[in-house]
Amino acid sequence: MARRLPALAFLACTLGGIATVRSHIHTDPDGQTVDWYPSDCCHDRDCRPVTRIETKFNMLWMTTSDGLTISVDPHQSRRPSRDNRWHLCVTSDDTDTPFVRCVFEPAGS
Fold first, then answer.
1. What is the pTM of this model?
2. How many domains does the chain have?
3. What is the pLDDT of residues 94-109, one digit of tens each?
4. CB atoms closer than 10 angstroms to residue 24
5. What radius of gyration do the chain's Cα atoms show?
6. CA–CA separation, 10 vs 83, rounded Å?
């Protein structure tokens, strides 16, 4: 039994690490889900669809499905959206200041 404990602990850590590599699944208030966010961009519920876009002061102001509004540099690199909607992945730095990790745009935008 003493030899099994380190092996079990290693297995648990390994499986736990694998689980964190999975991509995030977002569920909108209307029940629609988004399950294609890549794990290199989305970490722990920081990706969500955009419901509104405005251009002000040479910036794009995007509002997400949960009400977050954030400015996005119009020249920021973008990835293709898989569902023809805009999406943002927003996280916070050490000072809790939100910043955009990834932008997904519909084709032809």
1. 0.71
2. 1
3. 888 888 999 999 998 8
4. 19
5. 18
6. 39
